[in-house]
Amino acid sequence: MVFVPVHPDEQQFVDTALELVMEAGRLVRDAFDQPVCVVKTKESATDLVTETDQAVEKLLIKGLSEAFPDHKFIGEESTAGGASYRYTDA
């Protein structure tokens, strides 16, 4: 697949995301082999979240925020936990 950037920094965005996703994948793989997994429910008994879900989200948001400090990021687990957020058109 050929990637043609439309934003001058788009390749950096993609490269950073790929690097972080590979790291997150290792985290998930390592957690999968662990005998104990803490599972919590969010809004309903069928809406589950694990410590690994939260760790992956934290890793991704931290990595993206460090790479792109002028950008803002939100995630499913942190907003579900009551974290505040604000949308902009910036």
From TrEMBL:
One Pfam family per UniProt: Inositol_P
Family per similarity comment: Belongs to the inositol monophosphatase superfamily.
Residues spanning the signal sequence: none
Cofactors required: Mg(2+)
One GO MF term: metal ion binding
Record bears the keyword Metal-binding: yes
Keywords linked to the UniProt accession: Magnesium, Metal-binding
Organism: Nippostrongylus brasiliensis (Rat hookworm)
Protein name: Inositol monophosphatase ttx-7 (inferred by orthology to a C. elegans protein)
GO biological process, one term: inositol metabolic process
Lineage: Eukaryota, Metazoa, Ecdysozoa, Nematoda, Chromadorea
InterPro entries from the UniProt entry: Inositol_monophosphatase-like
Annotated positions binding Mg(2+): E76
